[in-house]
Amino acid sequence: MGAENNSEVTLRNTIEALSCKENIKDVCHLRHHGEPLPSQQSVARIVELCRGLIFPGFFGDSDVNRNNVTHYVGIRCEQLREVLVEQITAGLCFSVKEGKIDLAEIAVSAQEKADQFIANLPKLRELLFTDVKATYLGDPAAISTDEVIYCYPAIRAISNYRIAHELVKLEVPIIPRMISEQAHSETGIDIHPAATIGAGFTIDHGTGIVVGATAIIGNNVKLYQGVTLGAKSFDTDADGNPIKGIPRHPIIGDNVVIYSNASILGRINIGANAVIGGNIWVTEDVAEGEKLVQAKANNFLRFKQ
Amino acid sequence: MGAENNSEVTLRNTIEALSCKENIKDVCHLRHHGEPLPSQQSVARIVELCRGLIFPGFFGDSDVNRNNVTHYVGIRCEQLREVLVEQITAGLCFSVKEGKIDLAEIAVSAQEKADQFIANLPKLRELLFTDVKATYLGDPAAISTDEVIYCYPAIRAISNYRIAHELVKLEVPIIPRMISEQAHSETGIDIHPAATIGAGFTIDHGTGIVVGATAIIGNNVKLYQGVTLGAKSFDTDADGNPIKGIPRHPIIGDNVVIYSNASILGRINIGANAVIGGNIWVTEDVAEGEKLVQAKANNFLRFKQ
Amino acid sequence: MGAENNSEVTLRNTIEALSCKENIKDVCHLRHHGEPLPSQQSVARIVELCRGLIFPGFFGDSDVNRNNVTHYVGIRCEQLREVLVEQITAGLCFSVKEGKIDLAEIAVSAQEKADQFIANLPKLRELLFTDVKATYLGDPAAISTDEVIYCYPAIRAISNYRIAHELVKLEVPIIPRMISEQAHSETGIDIHPAATIGAGFTIDHGTGIVVGATAIIGNNVKLYQGVTLGAKSFDTDADGNPIKGIPRHPIIGDNVVIYSNASILGRINIGANAVIGGNIWVTEDVAEGEKLVQAKANNFLRFKQ
Amino acid sequence: MGAENNSEVTLRNTIEALSCKENIKDVCHLRHHGEPLPSQQSVARIVELCRGLIFPGFFGDSDVNRNNVTHYVGIRCEQLREVLVEQITAGLCFSVKEGKIDLAEIAVSAQEKADQFIANLPKLRELLFTDVKATYLGDPAAISTDEVIYCYPAIRAISNYRIAHELVKLEVPIIPRMISEQAHSETGIDIHPAATIGAGFTIDHGTGIVVGATAIIGNNVKLYQGVTLGAKSFDTDADGNPIKGIPRHPIIGDNVVIYSNASILGRINIGANAVIGGNIWVTEDVAEGEKLVQAKANNFLRFKQ
Amino acid sequence: MGAENNSEVTLRNTIEALSCKENIKDVCHLRHHGEPLPSQQSVARIVELCRGLIFPGFFGDSDVNRNNVTHYVGIRCEQLREVLVEQITAGLCFSVKEGKIDLAEIAVSAQEKADQFIANLPKLRELLFTDVKATYLGDPAAISTDEVIYCYPAIRAISNYRIAHELVKLEVPIIPRMISEQAHSETGIDIHPAATIGAGFTIDHGTGIVVGATAIIGNNVKLYQGVTLGAKSFDTDADGNPIKGIPRHPIIGDNVVIYSNASILGRINIGANAVIGGNIWVTEDVAEGEKLVQAKANNFLRFKQ
Amino acid sequence: MGAENNSEVTLRNTIEALSCKENIKDVCHLRHHGEPLPSQQSVARIVELCRGLIFPGFFGDSDVNRNNVTHYVGIRCEQLREVLVEQITAGLCFSVKEGKIDLAEIAVSAQEKADQFIANLPKLRELLFTDVKATYLGDPAAISTDEVIYCYPAIRAISNYRIAHELVKLEVPIIPRMISEQAHSETGIDIHPAATIGAGFTIDHGTGIVVGATAIIGNNVKLYQGVTLGAKSFDTDADGNPIKGIPRHPIIGDNVVIYSNASILGRINIGANAVIGGNIWVTEDVAEGEKLVQAKANNFLRFKQ
Question: I need a labelling partner for F46 at 20 to 30 A (CA). Which of A251, B136, F111, F219 fits?
Answer without folding.
Answer: F219
